[in-house]
Design goal:
By secondary structure, the chain is α+β, with helices and mostly antiparallel strands. The protein has a domain at 433-575 and 614-686: 3-Layer(aba) Sandwich (Rossmann fold). The protein has 13 helices and 35 strands. Helix 1 (4-11) runs parallel beside helix 4 (361-373). The longest helix is centred in the C-terminal third of the chain and has 19 residues, at 668-686.
Amino acid sequence: MISSLRSLRFRSLLALGIAGLALSLGAQEEEPPTVSFPPPGGETTTAAAPAPAAEAEPAGEEGPIPVEAFMRSPLLRGPQLNDSGSHVAALYATSEASYQLVVREVSTGADFYLGGGGAAMVDEFQWLGDTHIAYNLINANGNDVGLMVADITNPAEAYPIYQYGSARIVVVPPGNPLQPLVWVSVGNAEGSPAVVELDAATNRGGFIEIDPADEEAGLVAIAERHSDAILSVVPLPEGTQLGYLSDGIGGLGYAYTAVENQVKLNVWSGKEWFPSPLGFENARMVDVGEEPGQVLMAIPSEEGKPNALRFVNSLTGELGDILLQDSNYDFNGSVFRDPSSNAVVGVFYDRTGPTAQWFDEGYRELQQSLNKYFPGRVVRLIDLSQDANVMLLGVTSDRDPVIYFTLDVTAKKLDVLSGERPWLPGARLSPTSILKYTTADGKKLDAYVTLPKGTSRENPAPLVVLPHGGPFARTTWGFDPEAQLLASRGYAVLQPNYRGSTGYDWMFTTRERGDVLMMHDDVTRAVRTVLKTGMIDPDRIGISGGGFGGYLAVTGLVEEPDLYRGGVTVSGVFDWQRLANQIGLGRENHPTYGPLFALLGDPGSEAAKYDAISSGRRVKQIKHPVLVVKEQAGRSPEAQESLELIDDLLSAGVPYEVHNIEATLLALETRVALFDRMLQFFDDNLK
């Protein structure tokens, strides 16, 4: 824990005059309160956020908010402070498909920009101490162009330290930040990927151009440049390299590798790698610990209790202290470290809503003060200068995309950096309520309901159900662009979590977690629960989902033909045995479907189970239209499943429509076209 002197610094924040009653979904010790449905004829409101400094055209005050306003990429992403807090950097959208780096001087508000433009954009960055910043350039196809470094006192002279290959920073040593440890695509004499120590202080010139007429000479020149910049090479761990982690105190700590299709953790001693006995079948590594060789893992507890976040010795497997064990939710979040001591002083995770838990009194009092200053919002401490004088905050709610602020404690000055979507008018958006429902086996799960303005028991709204994908993911309380888009068009939205959703593993046995039909039943029970409020028109309900949510949408139409009046499926799977046969024997190691196949078992010996969950085989039970969204000429398993579904719907005589995705969903026009079509489909069938 950090010192009491540091806690006293945070207490000085109380002198800022932060006051007022607070309702915060980031409350520390208690369950976030359930947000009530607005009373008939009434509206709930939140305090207005300060106007963000943005260069985007806001949506108007009259008429429907354009689909584009909801679907646009965030204006600002991933801000970070430098060590002293004098500057903050973030990814900034120069266009819909391209980001560059914006760096702002906190005291003056002056900005300058790095990277981006032309055929390259910035996708990651990392401060190298106080005066230098490194950033990765990629091209439009996502291929690495180079790792750049800029001195913020002379940003026009940015230079590459690794080019035409992957280079991802693993560790920035606090004592020598211009010699970062970087995982590069070619790092040793054998030409294999490796972690190397790079010289980031020396400008060796701009990019080396490769002449197509003499490509070999260009490649040799690049190799020589890299060799000159590489100061040392870390020996390779055993197995196929999957990733590296720091030790939490400024050095290299761990490596993930694959050995015979098993993920292994390796521990760096400073000279060599040692294999860790830790397994990851049930436990999840959350972060590194506070001491060398120590890690933080979310580990299942005894039956009937949520998992525990606890320290573990990575070399012996010995369990250490429990840092956190919630009474109702498995831990699924991240940790916050004090920047001067690297101690873990807090965690962020999901309960009914986003939750912060602080282990230090100073940070706890800071959070309480911020909650009072931003009532009704989720307030997150994102970053902190080394001396704790400058803070970077993220503030959000169900109707407000994240707005970033800098807080200068010494100057008692709170400034808006920018918002993720400053063009969206929060006052015109709809509140999201938390709904508890009960499963068939008596478990209490969370769902989220967004009601359009004007909804009442006298004027019930049509409903669109949005089961999340995964299935091992979750929906949580907060701003959701798809839910807000639908609500702006007069639809209520239900977003149910179901068994398998993150946070609930402790409630279910392994078999129950993989019970796909019961996942569908959970969704149905959430729908029937929200119908009891009287706010929903029971004759106008639709369902829509992507990925596993797309499967649940079709399963809902098949198993509950009188409940839903139409459904949309995007990239779903509808015959699990067919997919299992397509993937083959390595299905349990598949990056997308492996965890689910591990629970479902072998399709040969479990043929009856696979038949029962393959809703595409029973589409003749569907009574109402289906919109099938498919990739044009796609070769992915999901694209093939969509084609099979279309054939099955045609053979069964079920009314259907098809929307072809002509280009990547990363393109704004593609997303707008998709949601325009979805809105038209629901207008045709639910209104």
